[in-house]
Amino acid sequence: MRISDPQIVARLTKLAVELQPGISLADQTSLGIGGTADLLRIKKHESIPHLMKLLDSNHIPHKFLGGGSNLLVGDGELPWVMLQLVGPEPDVVLEGNLAHVDAAADLGRTVTFCAKNDLGGMEGLIGVPGTVGGALRMNAGAYGMQIGSYVREVKLYRAAERKIEFLRGHQISFEYRHTSFAPDDMMLSVTLELPSKPFKEILQGIRICNEKRRASQPLGQKSAGCIFKNPAGASAGRMIDELGLKGHAVGDAQVSDRHANFFVNAGKASAKDMLALIADVRGRVQKAFGVELENEVVVWNA
Ligand code: EPU
Questions:
Q1: Where a domain ends, among 157, 174, 200?
Q2: Does the beta carbon of 296 sit less than 6 angstroms from any atom of ligand 1?
Q3: Predicted confidence (pLDDT) per residue in 201-220, tens digit
Q4: Total structural domains within the chain
Q5: Ligand 1 in reach of 123 Cβ (< 6 A)
């Protein structure tokens, strides 16, 4: 979707929203797949309610783009504009055991910064790409921990109420790769309450998780992490592996030969290729195990 009306462009400038015309979503996503759209970079949280009013009254559909690491975007000209937060500097501020973090902050950098200040708990998340806002929305987790366990307060734009609100941690439900936020809510910032731990101890935990990840996941390749959620009590990766599907491909979309629940873009895969691979693998797992795998990857396809 493109914005060309000069009146809208002037309003965006007044709201401290930067318009980047016709960006490629392939450049914004870890899968390296996706068509083109205008990108609106938001520099002030307080502009958001006004921006949403402007977009709604001009019938401009939108999507919130975080770090693009768990996202499969369709090909060609996309029917939405992309909204993205620009974080302040610094984007993490510590206060005792509390870390106040902007949603646009890089997750890995946040975990490391907290660790250097003797705040632990999130060791498992090192190596998970993306923003803190994205991790929060999905309740990202690994190696027995999940970000939701540390949330004390969240600042968000609530699409239904059209306003910025604060929620306490206990008002939000954090489940396996799922939260009670509405799909249109936009994460703005979060306060995490982290346990004190000596840096050396945290570093040891980080090293162990890094090694496990390096040994089992295709880290150097373009992927969106795990494609499917694990069904209760089972591993999607193991099931796909047992069907001998490592390396199975549609065009350049390929089941990783390292971890079968990672699908990689081995060259110039299109969204069409990747979606066909996902459907094919889902069908085979359903047929062999009677289990309907649910996407973990978020799909934006018109
Ligand atoms: N396995 C296979 N073949 C494979 C992959 C896995 O046999 O190709 C087996 C492993 O040997 C192991 C079991 O399946 O016995 C589980 O594998 P793994 O430890 O890699 O964990 P997973 O359940 O596949 C989950 C998360 C990952 C997270 C790891 C580590 C999901 C869908 N996946 O993977 O998260 O990094 O545990 O905690 O919950 C993600 O969310 O994108 C993601 C990668």
A1: 200
A2: yes
A3: 999 999 999 999 999 999 99
A4: 3
A5: no
